[in-house]
Amino acid sequence: MTITRRRFVSLGATALGAAALAAASAASCGGGPTDDTGASSRPGGDGRLRARPGAPTGTPSPGALGALAPLDLASGRDGLLYVPKRYAPDRPASLVLMLHGAGGSARGGINPFLPLADELGLILLAPDSRGQTWDVILGAYGPDVVFIDRALTSVFARYAVSPGRLSVEGFSDGASYALSLGLTNGDLFSRAVAFSPCFSAPASRHGTPRIFVSHGMADAVLPIDGCSRRLVPRLRSAGYEVDYREFDGPHTVPAEMARGAAEWLAG
After folding, report:
1. Strand pairing of 122-127 and 161-171?
2. In the sheet that 210-216 helps form, which strands lie side by side, from edge to edge?
3. Which of 33, 40, 57, 207 is most deeply packed, by most CB within 10 A?
4. Do residues 126 and 109 make contact, with C-beta atoms less than 8 angstroms apart?
5. Where are the beta strands (DSSP E) in 50-92?
6. What pTM, to 2 d.p., does this model score?
7. Integer angstrom CA distances of residue 155 from 56, 58, 251
């Protein structure tokens, strides 16, 4: 069953529980990708990221610390990298892969943690999705997995990153994708942050990443009853540790939720 954001919104909260969310939640408990036709033969089709941190072989560009920099991996839709001012190659840093919402870009995707990166020593990597949203939400894993793998490889080659301090974060569609990628690659990501998600569709499960979820009680885009209030219990029943926080607000990432999540990552 193909899972799309439009389908989730149009079904409504009740139908979500009976149809689309059931398929997504089953995936979060160890099922397959949303569309596994030929998945093993497509680049990135298995949802697995191969990049791993190690001893950097390159050097940061002059002036790269404390400034937003393009990834320079693609023309058009590319991505952004932020390395905190206090980064030091002899002290491997924490890294957060940040995933924007539908129709968004890296600039919006990196915003939640950008004001906190220097304080908490976080390297922020925010790629642009290849299409209007992330591949599995449009039908199947593929081009976004490949591009994210390239972006991680590029960062690992230039910066010292702690293997035990890699996380994936996202908002809205990016939150659902962060959970999906996070569970598929729990042997890479130790933690996953999902701001207002609606489903999780891992291709497979590896590791047991800890999970942070927040959702607005007045969310009219991805209503909380049909999304996080159904998703979080399923994640917990599958054995994942979930820090779940609701707030009185709409489809957004309040500053206090961003700080809470960032401090949870740094803890």
Report:
1. unpaired
2. 68-70, 79-82, 122-127, 93-99, 161-171, 191-195, 210-216, 242-247
3. 33
4. yes
5. 68-70, 79-82
6. 0.88
7. 9, 9, 31
